[in-house]
Structures are given as C-alpha cells and as structure tokens.
Design goal:
The complex is a heterodimer. Chain A is built from no helices and eleven strands. In chain A, strands 2, 4, 5, 9, 10 and 11 form a six-stranded mixed sheet that branches. Chain A has a five-stranded antiparallel sheet with strand order 1-3-8-7-6, with no helix packed on it. In chain A, strand 4 and strand 5 form a beta hairpin. Chain B is mainly beta. Chain B is built from no helices and eleven strands. Chain B is globular and about 40 Å long. Classes of the chains: A mainly beta, B mainly beta.
Chain lengths: ~110, ~120
C-alpha cells in the first residue's frame, strides 16, 4: 500500500516568512495529492490539492509542487500570518473515478510568531 | 460540499464500556469513512462503510472492536467496544465530495473526542 512521509513534524517561523512542508510517497500509481489544514480543536479542511498531470498549483499565498519522478510534493506558504498556525497534513492516493481513499502523512505543526 | 454532523462531540467513558458515535450527512453518499486521530497524531482510517453491505476494515482494526452500521445513504454509526485507555482518541467521520464529478476532497465531521478512564 501507499506510504507517505511528511517533514518537518514542527515548523516555527516569524510572521511574514515563508514556510515549506515536504512529503514523499511510495506508490507511483498515486495521482491525487491534497493538503489539509487542521486548526486546534477543529476538523481538517482541504486547502489545496494537485493531480499528477500538473507540476505546480497556486492559490494566493499557498502553492503546491509535485515531482512525480522523485515521488515528492511540497506545500509552500508565503507571507505567513498568525492565522496560518495549524497542523497541516499531506495525503496521497489513487483517484480513479471511484472513491478516493488517501494515505495521510503524520502532520506538520506550523507555528507563526507575530 | 457536504455538511457532516457528528455526536457526541466528546465523552468520558469508563474502561470496559462501549460508546456509539453517530454521523449524519446532509446529502446522500455512497461511502462514509471512519478515522481515528490519536493525540498529536495523523489520521488513521479505521473502516469504510457502504450502505447495504458490511464495512471494510483496515489492517489493525476489527469488526468486534469497532462495529459499524450504515442503514441508509446519509447516516452511519461507529461503536467503540469494551473500551480501554488506549482507545482515548478523536474519532472522525468523513465523506468524499458529493459533486457530480468526485474531486477526491474529503469532508470531515467535527470529531468525537473520547477519553477512557
């Protein structure tokens, strides 16, 4: 089955700095790579995703890059703000038109200091 | 999108007892997923629940410990049986996006935080 590794486990930055979280996956068949944000005491929510036919996707301050050859993908947050503080989970899996059951990384706790 | 209501939101339970968690979705979905999130840990899939058939359990999870019901396309329950302190965790119900073209996005309930004494 799929195995997803996520690093770092904790990331502390100053407000305005950039933050990068990296994930690697093992199954070359995986084709959908979402990122979820979970604020303290809240449910996880999708913030951005990328499919294997795209190398990069951007949405305002967040972007995701995918390297299929190396089987890794990264989340980039620019101009971080205190409200970006949360746990971020990457996931990987095969989306084939039926249901998608991803494997999640262990999560990265991002702390943005004002 | 999908709106998911889950209850209870939290409970404190005694060792050896069982607790049933309910999950209600505002639209009909084929599959519902139950996840466990232990403190500071990732999301681990317990089982996938299809309406009208037995749930499919992931490695390390068994039906006797986590029986699941799926009586219709909008509702499911997860029971945590014969609880021990190791079962203290957040349990999350989840569904895939219900748009005409499934995107793969998962929607989660707010979770049920169980503490077993």
């Amino acid at each position: 089955g799929e195995n997803v590794e996520q690093h770092p486990s904790t990331l502390s930055v100053q407000e305005g700095d950039s933050a990068v979280i990296k994930c690697t996956y093992s199954d070359s068949a995986s084709n959908y790579f979402p990122w979820y944000k979970q604020e303290l005491g809240k449910r996880p929510q999708l913030i951005i995703d990328i499919r294997s036919n795209v190398g990069e996707k951007k949405d305002q301050r967040i972007a995701v890059t995918l390297n299929k050859t190396a089987k890794h993908f990264s989340l980039h947050i620019t101009e971080t703000q205190p409200e970006d503080s949360a746990v971020y989970f990457c996931a990987a899996g095969l989306s084939s038109g039926g249901s998608y059951i991803p494997t999640f990384g262990r999560g990265t706790s991002l702390i943005v200091h004002p | 999108s999908a709106v998911i209501s889950q209850k209870p939101s939290r409970d404190i339970c005694q060792r050896g007892t069982s607790l049933t968690i309910q999950c209600q979705v505002d639209s009909q979905v084929t599959m519902m997923f139950w996840y466990r999130q232990q403190p500071g840990q990732s999301l681990t899939l317990i089982a996938t629940a299809n309406q009208g058939s037995e749930a499919t359990y992931e490695s390390g999870f068994v039906i006797d410990k986590f029986p699941i019901s799926r009586p219709n396309l909008t509702f499911s329950t997860l029971t945590v049986s014969n609880m021990s302190p190791e079962d203290s965790s957040i349990y999350l119900c989840s569904v895939e996006g219900v748009a005409e073209t499934n995107t793969g996005e998962l929607f989660f309930g707010e979770g049920s935080r169980l503490t077993v004494l």
